[in-house]
Each structure stands twice: as C-alpha cells, then as structure tokens.
Amino acid sequence: MAEDGDGNHRLIELEDGRSGGFSSEDSSVIHSPWPGNLRARGPARDKCYSWQSDDVPDLPQDEEREWTQGRTRFSSFGGSDLELRWEALSMCSWQVSRKSQEAVQILTNVSGAARAGKITCILGPSGSGKTTLLNVLAGRQSGGHRHRIRITGQVWVSGSRVDPRAVRSRMAYVMQKDEMFATSTPTEALSFSASLRLSGPRDRKELISELLGSLGLRSCSHTYIGNAVLNGLSGGQRKRTAIGVELITRPDIVCLDEPTSGLDSFAAYQVMSVLKDLGKAGCTIICTLHQPSSEIFALVDQVICLCDGRCLWAGDREQMVGYFSTVGYPCPVGFNPADFVIFLMQTEPKSKTDELTQIWTRKHAEAAAFCSESSLTSPYDEHELCRTPKVRSGFSTAQKGFGQQLRQLAKRELRAVVRDRTTLAVRVTLSVVLTFLFGLVFQGVGRTILETKDQNIFDQMWTGLTYAEVTALRKRKLEWHFNALVQVALVAMFSACQPVILTFPLERPVFLREYSSGTYSVLPYYLSKMVVEVPLVFVQSLMTLGLCYVVMSLNGNFWALLWTIVLLSVCSVSVALAISCAVRQPRETGAVGPLVFVPQMLFSGVFIPVSHMPVYLRWMQYFSFLQYAIKVLGIVEFRHVPHKELVLDAQDILEDSLWVYVGLLVLMVLIFSLTGIQMLRNKATHLF
Ligand SMILES: Nc1ncnc2c1ncn2[C@@H]1O[C@H](COP(=O)(O)OP(=O)(O)OP(=O)(O)O)[C@@H](O)[C@H]1O
Ligand SMILES: [Mg+2]
C-alpha cells in the first residue's frame, strides 16, 4: 500500500503480481507501524467453508488485479460533506420501583461536533455513556413516556436543526456485535443488503466489487462469515464485512459502536485504517472507542471525552494532551494519551472529574459566545430532542416492495437451511429414528379393521374366550390403534417445533439490526420463515407418515392423513415462532417451550377426557391445536373401521364435525402467526 499526494491509501500492484490490498494473506503490505516480524500472521485457521454462488458478481483474478491497480478506496463515497453538531444533549431514564420513581441521568449537557472527512471518537471508560450518545446521534435511541426516557438538546446537520431519526437514511450504524448470517459469504451479505436497499441494479455489482476491494475482503469474498460454532471469517474480516453491509447505501455519516472491540491490535488497526480512508473519501465518521492503542489513536482526528455521561473535553486529538496539562494533568512522556485520559477519568475522585467537567462547560460556553453562532442556545435547553414520536425516518419510503423483500429473504433462509447440513441431518435423523421406533412398537396395530364378526367367532374358537371378552379385547386393540395415531401426531408436533425454537431466537439480533436499518419489514421476514419451513415440514411429515403408514398398517386415506399432519406441523411451527418472538433472551425458549407444548398434550383429551377435568380448566382445551389434529386423524383413520364408535365416542370425537376441526386448526395457525408477527414488531419498535 502506498499513499498518494492527498494522503489517501492507494492499492498498488506488487512485483509478483499479487494485489496490494490488505487481505488476510497480504497483510504484510499494509502501511503499518509494526516492524515486519511482528506482522506475521498467526496459525492458519484449520477449516473454512466457502461457497461459490451464481447470483453474486464473479470476481476472476484478472478483474481483481485490474480493480486494484492505482485505485483509491471508497472512490464513489462522500461528496455531501455533512457536519453533525449537537448541543446540550441530556438523557434521563426513570426506573419505577414499587413505591417511588427514580430518575437516572445517563447523559448530561453533552456538546460536540463531527466533521466531514474526519474520524471523531467518543472516548471513555465502560458505562460512561458512549453507546448511548452514539445511539442518540444516530437516531436509534427511543425516547418518550412509553420508554420512560427523556432526551433533550439539539442536533444540527450542516447547519439545519434536525430530529436525528429523520436523517437515518443518510447514516450508517454499525453495531458493536457483528450480527450476520453465519452461512452467508461477504459477497452474499453485501449483495443481499444491496438488493433490498439500493434503488436500481445499475451500479450494484460495481459497488459490491468496490466495497470488497476497499474493505480488503476480496480474498475471502466466498468464505462463510461463520460464528462460534461454524468456522469462517476472522474477527477483523467479519467486522469489515459488517461495516460493508451498512456502507451499501453510500451513507454520508457513519456511526460505529466499538469497531475495534474483541479484535487483536493488528485487526483493529486494519479496521481503523478502513475508516480513515472512508473519512478521507468525504464521509463523517463517529465511533466509540474503549481502549485504543497508540497506533489506532493516531488515526483519530477529533476526540470527545465522556465521563459519567458528561463531557470532559472535546476537540482536535493533537490538542488533548495540551489541554489536560493546562488543567493540571500532564500526560507523562511516552504514555498513550488515550490510556492516560481514560485512567484519569476512572481513578480521580468524583469531585475532581466534576470540576473538570465544569471547567470544560465554561470554556465551551465562552467559545460559543465568542463565535456568537445563532444556532447555539443555552446549554440547558429543555426542548425534547425527538418531538415526532412516530418518525420512521426517510428509509421507509426507500424500502423495496413486499414481493422483492420476501423473495430475497426466502432465498437467504433456504440457503442457510441447505448449508447448515448438521442441523438438517439431525432433523431428518431424529424424525426417522423416532418414527421407526414408534412404528416398531405399534407394528401392525391397524389390522383391527379385519376383525369383522366372523373374525370374532374365529377368535372365540381359537382363544377359548367368551364373546364379551373378545369384544373387550377388540376395544383395547382399537385404543392401541388410536394411541398409535396420537404418537404420530406427537412426533410431527415436536419435530416441527424443535428446530425453530432452537435456531430462530439466535437469529433475532440479525433481524433487529436489519429491521432497524430499514432493510425490510416484519411481515415478509416472518413469511420468509414460513415459506421455507412449510416445504421442510411437508417432507418431514411425508417421511413420518410414510413409515408409520406401512409399519403400523394404518387404514385411512394416506393423503388426508398427510395433510392433517402437515397442518399440525405448520401450527406447531407458528406456535414455536410466536414463542421465539415473545421471549427476551434465546435461552428463555427452553423454559417457555414446554410451558406451551406440554399443556397441548394434557388438554388433548387423550389421557383424560376434558369432561372429567375441573370446570375452571376446561376452557384451555380450546387452545390445544393438538386435540383438533388428533380428532381429524381419528375420523380419517377410523372412518371405515367396524365398531369405530367404541373409540370415537370415548374420545369425544364427532364425525360430522370434521371440517369444523380442520377450520379450527387453520384458525390456530392464523392466530399464532399474527401473535408472532405482532410480538416481533413490538420487539423491533421497542428497541429503536
Ligand atoms: N435505557 C436505559 N435505561 C437505564 N439506564 C441506561 C439505559 N441505557 C443506558 N443506561 C445506563 O447508562 C450508562 C451508560 O451506558 P452505555 O451503554 O452508554 O455505556 P458505554 O460507555 O457504552 O459502556 P461500554 O464501554 O461498556 O459499552 C450505563 O450505566 C447503563 O446502565
Ligand atoms: Mg458501549
């Protein structure tokens, strides 16, 4: 890498023909403060999975070489030169306890600015309010009575006062955690973001190619992103991919929460140099940093020091050491200034930091008065920052149509299912093994249909039993036959809900990130899950019933039984989705799941008729979708069985109500789906 006359990092062709971008393999060519021997890579990752997809731009070697020659990173970015300025930002939250209402001041009278072409860093110890300030500036902090949060102050973008939520379409926000689909590749992640967030396909491929090159991701563009259990990109590559996904809209302001956290110092440096180049292209960069190394801190242009939600100092990085010297805290020679200030904020008593805050507030007020800027107001402006509670920002209008969203989401979902071969194999094996086990236990149980009157006489002669005893035996056999059906229904219900309960809550952070950036809305997301799950449960039901039908010698119409099992499985999936949408933490599904599914069995009327249950509990039977499915299965299976009334009457099954039961099952699917959609919407809107 070299620097051109303007100080931009340029990618150059190396002598041996390799590109000079900072891919993981070519990290030694990066302009870095480390000596050569420290730049050696760690041990190679043992196994990475890649995927070549045909729906994304192909990047042949020649093209890559051509792309890198003499290019400037992010050349198509910037140009708007937006300056973000904020005055007297305060945020207060009410914690309501049993007797009183306690107010917690999270931000107090924070002022500052972020300029185009510069990296502005919010520096402070843990809990100082860095993320909160960034969220407020990025329009991602809910306020108002409903959230028990009051945000006051003013924000300007290039001189115009704005509600930050209204300019979200021009901002990118990169969260601290990289929430992405583990089974997608960087190219696919960028392509997905582009297809839902860019208006036309005109320069989509070009932009993806530019981003992959600028972010140093070309060498791993077809490697899985990965997660804790699936090997994939390195931490630095993953972070750069997360940045790329948000940069797809060519934003003017880029906000990043702790972009270097969790990375080793070199990977962190790579990320920050990407941001430096992005800044040089003309974007306004604001990031929070918790513990920057000297090399990383040297890349920062402006600093805002936060301590307990108050501003201790804000200004050009070069002036920071000088300022703290003037107020009595000289930074020892050779110390990292960022470490020095963070240490100071954490070790000095509160009275001292309060004093420093007051000194800075006074100096800032004097400077503002000196500039006599009309837009600057009293530092204690009590105007609510977010005055339009329903603002869903500019991006809502830019969203793609429902069909396009559903298509893209379903495509990604299907890809994830196909590529996650372990989960798929576990799913198939479990249902085959369980079905086979049940099949063997209930082997040939359906042959009761042959027990006509003649058979009874034969049985009597053969076994020496009386007619009454043979009838009792037949009744018991009919019960076993019915129990076999119940087991088929139980296997279908549990095998359909289990994968959803285990995987969906883990994906929710990805949904929340994408929803908050306006990539798609709740309904297509939910339906995409269904669109992929329904064919899967169909295949699963076909396997389950196919095996049982043969081994248990069932008698009912195969297709009628199959569609009932499919409907039951879809209902089970919709309940599992509703639970996954309702819980706060993924691990809660483990507790809530049995709470919903076990009563399904209890109130199915199989173990004890509902008429024998306490009156005040009977209403719960109406929520047991399992009982409706079992009733339909019972009617279909026993329709032509002699003495069917022995079992149907015992189970309170009304043969004439077949379509009522089917209708109730469909109604249950609708109710649980709508509940899930509403829960998901609540979660998403409550967050931002
Ligand atoms: N909605 C809220 N309600 C109540 N308290 C909150 C809320 N949001 C943040 N806080 C509190 O405000 C303080 C600052 O939180 P914040 O996440 O902004 O800190 P931070 O500087 O980003 O910390 P870290 O470096 O650990 O990420 C914390 O004490 C946190 O508990
Ligand atoms: Mg934080």
Automatic annotation (TrEMBL):
Membrane association type: Multi-pass membrane protein
Lineage: Eukaryota, Sar, Alveolata, Dinophyceae, Suessiales
Subcellular location: Membrane
Pfam families in the cross-refs: ABC2_membrane, ABC_tran
Biased composition (Basic and acidic residues): 1-18
Biased composition annotated in UniProt, kind: Polar residues: 21-30
PROSITE patterns to which the protein is assigned, alphabetical: ABC_TRANSPORTER_2
UniProt-annotated stretches for the region Disordered: 1-44
UniProt GO molecular function: ABC-type transporter activity; ATP binding; ATP hydrolysis activity
Protein name: ABC transporter domain-containing protein
Keyword terms of this UniProt record: ATP-binding, Membrane, Nucleotide-binding, Transmembrane, Transmembrane helix, Transport
